Amino acid sequence: QVQLVESGGGLVQPGGSLTLSCAASGFTFSSYFMNWYRQAPGKERDFVARVSSNSGWTNYADSVKGRFTVSGDGAKATVYLRMNSLKPEDTAVYYCKFSTVDTGGLREYWGQGTQVTVSS
Q1: Could you give the CA distance from residue 85 to residue 9 in angstroms, rounded to a whole number?
Q2: CB 6 within 8 Å of CB 93
Q3: Relative to the CA of 62, which of 48, 69, 70, 113 has its CA 20 to 30 Å away?
Q4: What is the pLDDT of residues 63-119, one digit of tens each?
Q5: H helix count then E strand count, the chain
Q6: Which pLDDT score is estimated for 89?
Q7: Is 55 helix (H, G, I), strand (E, B) or coil?
Q8: What is the CA radius of gyration of the chain?
């Protein structure tokens, strides 16, 4: 059974930094994407960033480009999100998602979420 556990959320002042982590257990796929999403109160869950487990290729939402950095350790099935220059509008519950495709089709696994609050 695949489980994703996130950590690193909390309260931070505007302009501050946080690093989120997400570790997967029971995940045996060799090639996959490690993704971060976020959901603010009353809004839909939005894509933030992703990294490929094999190539290290990354992709970001425009709203976080230049401020957030996603990195991953494919061998450990762990993904990180370094968030700098945080703004109040970054306040949300952050979720990690591991996704891959195999003979059974698309497989997606979500973490439980971790709260990030940016406030003075």
Answers
A1: 15
A2: no
A3: 113
A4: 999 999 999 988 889 999 999 999 999 999 999 999 999 888 999 999 999 999 999
A5: 0, 11
A6: 97
A7: coil
A8: 14
